[in-house]
Amino acid sequence: MINLPIIEKSFPFGEPTSTRLFIPVPIQQNFVQSDMIDVHGGTVMGMYVPAMTAALLRFTASVDGGATESVVVNRNGTPASVTLIVPAQPSYIAFDEIPRAMAEAVRWFRIHSYNAAGPVAEAAARTITLVVKYTS
To answer: Rounded to whole angstroms, how far apart are CA atoms 8 and 128?
Structure first.
């Protein structure tokens, strides 16, 4: 399970009513998924994605820390995914691309590296950075 290290916390315009944490999520070389991520009730706003081998990212969710996992699906029942337009280039993905219910309600989830044929092992270690918002 991934802990919640604070990479950056800066409030140049006064004390905020919410806090954003930047959580690193590694996918190891030759692996197809991250470890289970615990966002402790925060809302995932988006993610910074490095250059990837895969063209899609998919998600599984858990209510028990990963003992059981379910595929996150969209309203029409297909697996929720993010298409990396140019996988070889870093990008930021806002989570309006993913079901809002996942971004707001899921405590534990895992990121999977995919393409149209199925899971894809990453050619090198990658670190995706989640932007998670906590409201006081």
So the answer is: 15
Contact in structure between 103 and 111 (CB atoms under 8 Å) = no
Cβ atoms of 133 and 20 closer than 8 Å: yes
**HSE (CB half, 13 Å, CA atoms) of 136?**
6
CA max distance for the chain: 48
> Which residues lie across from 118 on neighbouring strands?
115
Each residue's pLDDT tens digit, 31-60: 999 999 988 888 888 889 999 998 899 989
Nearest Cα to 80, choosing from 65, 105, 20, 52? 105
pTM: 0.80
Please, what are the domains in the chain? 26-135 (2.60.120.260)
